[in-house]
Amino acid sequence: MAQLTGLTFGGNPWTPKFAQEIDYEKCIGCGRCFKICGHNVLTLKALNEEGEFVEDEEDDEIERKVMVVAHPENCIGCEACSRICPKNCYSHTVLDN
Questions:
Q1: What mean pLDDT value characterizes the chain?
Q2: Buried b / exposed e across 25-43, counting CB within 10 Å, b at 16+?
């Protein structure tokens, strides 16, 4: 299979690696990745004590919030989210055609 590759401005080969998932056990919900991503890929979601997502964020059952890859189709593969993450929560993958 062929991989999606490109060139940097300097002419060096570059292979984008797209955000796939975030390890919720490691994520502290700091929002650094959300702030650096300009492509609406991520969103903050609430978890209850059992580690299940809570839809109603006004609910008293919220234990903490974590970042999720909500719109992976918007990811450009720059890996800025992973580089700024203080807990190394991200997993990325290349696009195989």
A1: 91
A2: eebeeeebbbeebeeebbe
